[in-house]
Every structure is written in C-alpha cells, then in structure tokens.
Amino acid sequence: MPNDPLSSISMWVCLLLSVALIVVRIGFRLWRKQRLIHGDYWCLLAALFTIMRLATNYYLLIYGSTRIISAERRLQLLEPEYESSASEVVIGSKLVLATRTMLTCLLWCLKMAVFDLLARLIAKMPYERILVYGFWTALFSTFVASVVTIFIGCRPFERHWQIYPDPGECVVGNVWLITYETSNIVADLMLMAIPFTLICSVTIPMTQRLRVMALFSIGIFLVAISIIRIIQGKDSRVQRGHTLWASLEILLAVVVAVTPTIYALAHGRHENDTLNRTHLSEYPRGRTFSGGTIPSDKYSGSLWTELHDDTLNRLDSASSQRVLIVMRHQSLDARVV
To answer: The organism sits in which domain of life (predicted)?
Structure first.
C-alpha cells in the first residue's frame, strides 16, 4: 500500500521535534552541571517510546491495516497472488495495537514528568501526601484503563487483524479512543489544577502571575486536541487523520512537559551562586511565628512562581526549612479564612 505523504511528513516533523525538545531539556540540565531528576528520566523514557512509535508507525503507513481497506480490497486479498499483500495488512493491523500502546505509554510518561515538577512545588505542605497519593492513583488508573481498552475492543482477539469478513467497528477503536482521550483530559485538568490553585492563593505582581499562568496553561491546548481527536477519530477509518492528530498530540504533550523546566533552567542560569544572597538572606520584614521570622505572603508567592531552577533544586537544608515554614503558615492562614 502506498505511503500517504501528508501523514508521513506530519509524523516525522512532530515526533522528531518532540525528541529534540526533550534533548534540549536534558542538555540544559547537563550544561548547568546538575544531576538528572525523576522528571528528566520520565522524559527520556517518553523519548524512547516516541522513537519506537516513529519506527512502528512508518511501517504501519506502508502496510496499511484492516480498518482502512475497502470491501473490494478485502476480496482481492483473498486471492493467492495477493498473499504477500494480505500478510502486510495483517502485520500492519497488529502494529496498530503497538502504536496505540506506545502512544499511551509516552503520554503518561510526560504526565509523570509534569507531576514531578508539581510534586516538588508542594513538597512538605500539609496536604502534600493526600495530593501525591491522589494523583498517583488517578494517573495509574487512567493509564491502566487506556491500555486495557486497546486490547479488549475485538472478540475474539484475532479480529483485530481479520481481513475477511470485515471485522466491524471494533478495529476502529472507538472504545479505546473515548476511554483514552477522556482519561487524558481528566489527567491534564488535574495537573493544571495545582499550579493554578497556587497562583491564585498567593500575592504576586500581575506580570509575574500571567507569566507563570502562561507556562502552565499550555495544557489547555492539549485538552482541546483531545476533544478534537474524539470528534474526528470516532468511527473514522482514515489513517491520515489518526496519524496527524496523534502526532500533534505528542508534540504538544512534550511542550507541556518540558517548557516549565527549560524556562527555569534558562531563567536561573546565571544565579547558581546567588540564591541565598538574592532571595534567602534579603527577606522583607514579615510576621514572627514560633518557627522564626516569616516573610510576607508576597515574597513567599514570588519565591516559587519565579521558577528559578535553583529555587527548585539547590536550596540548602536551612533555606528549605525556612521556605517550608512559609508554605505551612500560608496553608494554616487559608484554613482559618
């Protein structure tokens, strides 16, 4: 089956650009002479799945699959002289299951990379454990649901690559698409809820508030693409649409996962040795609690929303303790109100 140029171009451009963005994130980390964190490893794993999907999708576009061939083509493939072509369609139909699995795995790896950053922002806060366990449960359940529905659509299982008779709508993957994209939307909205809640709860300049909101609001576009994929992909037997929108979804998911970290690394690249001097030793006059002198809410909000990589990665133990006191008292103030 001839390759579709538009599908191939969109796939190669989006997936290679996705891998390049992950390389930029890791390159920035190494350039700053910092050790890799969990989020970096999740991104590297996502890059591996992306490369595997690129190779698998390449052959899928060449071989085709049973979900896109016409009724006339099905009858033609039953003839002995087309045995080789029929074998390719069977292989392509099996590759559909592989590409769906890789797509799900790489997207959830990227969600874990985002969650790693958010978990460090809320570290040691009173509600940290509830949030962490809640997000782990949500991400794990949505991932399992998305993967399981890849393989349970057709019964018996061989119908996934059955050529004749037409296996029906099960090979289109409506059950998987709706489950997977709904899980995608729920997980993305949950991940966006943390930074937006924190932004709204602190007093910071409007320009700084808008800057941080812009960094984390990219996920809105990912939710929009998920909705478009449900509308466009439901009952669709056109491979071009599936490949194009899935490739765009991967690229945008990578942008969401790497942009805040790249921004933090670039923003703080000249501040490796000045954090304590510029941020922690020049506290504005604030309130006094049993734990010591606590800076004002405006300062404490500014501390994490500036997204300096040093702030997130290189606080010494004494400085970390002072920041934790700030966060705890902010939470207590919110409860009192």
So the answer is: Eukaryota
